[in-house]
Amino acid sequence: MTSEGTLLKLIIAGEGGVGKTTFVRRFVEGVYHDSILTVGTAFAAKRIVVDDGQGQQSPLKLQLWDFAGEKRFRSMLPKFCVGARGAILSFDLSRFSTFLKLSEWLTMIRSNTESVPVILVGMKADLLRAVDQKEAIEFTQSQGLKAYFETSAKENINVDSVFEYIAKQMLEYTRKRQA
């Protein structure tokens, strides 16, 4: 814990073009920008305060590690997972092919972290849907993920809610590991 609060590393993974970078920028900067594809890994940070579930407000500093989704960068994923306290597994609601790749991404996350909380996030809820909500919920439940959210960085739908939820899960996870 620093004077600025608990430092928590969050990884954000999923196929290229699903909207991870735009989603992170909406959260950190509060504005929407169409983004170009991330090369390797993008990094951002933001301070937030969350209710810790014990009636206390806990200041946190989230380190957001946005992984490029292209295959050529996947060999870098294991080293960037070191120290992560949570993960957002993402897909594009308008592209079913990105949903089909979730198991591969989840295996990479789970193989390179220590049972961190993972949530599933369907991006681009403002576009025509190709993935049924029921399918995403079934995947979430069958894989033991903490929650499922649908978001739109463009329309600012559920962006802050996702980060607040995963931050609480990460704080709880960190406290249990320290106990």
Distance between the termini: 14 Å
- Provide the CATH top-level class: Alpha Beta
Overall geometry: globular
Question: How many E strands?
Answer: 6
Verbal overview:
The protein has 179 residues and is an alpha/beta fold. The chain has one domain (6-178): P-loop containing nucleotide triphosphate hydrolases (Rossmann fold), CATH 3.40.50. 34% of the residues lie in helices and 27% in strands. Strands 2-3-1-4-5-6 form a 6-stranded mixed sheet, with helices on both faces. Strand 5 (118-123), helix 5 (133-142) and strand 6 (148-150) form a beta-alpha-beta unit. The longest helix is centred in the last third of the chain and has 20 residues, at 159-178.
Task: List the main descriptive attributes of the protein structure presented here.
single chain, 179 residues, alpha/beta, 6 helices, 34% helix, globular
Quick structural overview:
By secondary structure, the protein is an alpha/beta fold. The chain is 34% helix and 27% strand. The chain has one domain (6-178): 3-Layer(aba) Sandwich (Rossmann fold), CATH 3.40.50.300.
